[in-house]
Amino acid sequence: MVLSGVIVSRIDPSIGTVWDGMWWAWVTMSTVGYGTLKPLTVAGKIFTIAFIVVGVATFSYHLTQLFRVLVEKGIVEAFGERRMSRRIGELQDHFIVCGHGRIGSIVCAELRRKGTPLVVVETDPKVVAELEAEGVLVLKADAREEQVLRTAGVERAKGLIALLPADADNLYLILAARDLNPSLNIIAIEMATEKQDLQLQMEEFTVKPTSPLAGKTLTETGLLRKHKILVVAIKRTDGTMAFNPEGSTAIHAGDSLIVLGPAIKQFMT
Prior knowledge:
Layout: H1 2-11, H2 18-29, H3 42-89, E1 95-98, H4 102-113, E2 118-122, H5 125-133, E3 138-140, H6 146-151, E4 159-162, H7 167-180, E5 185-188, E6 200-206, H8 218-221, H9 223-227, E7 230-235, E8 241-243, E9 256-262, H10 264-268
Parallel strand pairs: 1-2, 1-4, 2-3, 4-5
Antiparallel strand pairs: 6-9, 7-8, 7-9
């Protein structure tokens, strides 16, 4: 615009100054056409024609490029979402991890290490992008919404792990998930633990007949109170699973405990 204003002010006396030339250029290119300034010489008119042709072509090109980028981005995102939904729709007996904070990342890493199928529901776009880059099935959505839980396959899922930042949200999530799938195994971890500086691990070990845990309830073992170890699930010798067991649940020899906590391997030894 500046260069065009300089040129037209030099070749056409009717547009006296550079500022008038710049005004003419802006008015012409914007198609407003006030008519307050217009070239009168042949050279000025020829330059105006060339300016309009080049200007319109340049503007159209950039507008087309912008439109193409926006459309392609939308198509890619839509295709990615459809592909993600299709892959989630094929899952059976998977886990839904709601919230991917520090504890959530540890839980997901352990589930992936053990080859357990899972879907993460997270609202943070940065976290979602990182999980997608790692090939993790993830939904960018609010886990408290019923439709989101359905999309995550809650009716076909084996379990749900509630790790939202607020315990009130986790309670609402649990009630919604239980309503959609009464047989769903639900694990809820008090999020006050999220604020502690813990190096958490998830492990599975079998209770031996000589173990001090055999024959005691979870409360009596003091695993959570003394050792900060949470029993996520108990696998009985007959193959049945007890998820998120209560403190009164008894531990028997031969049971397999799936636990989450710090320094578990040292405790097991």
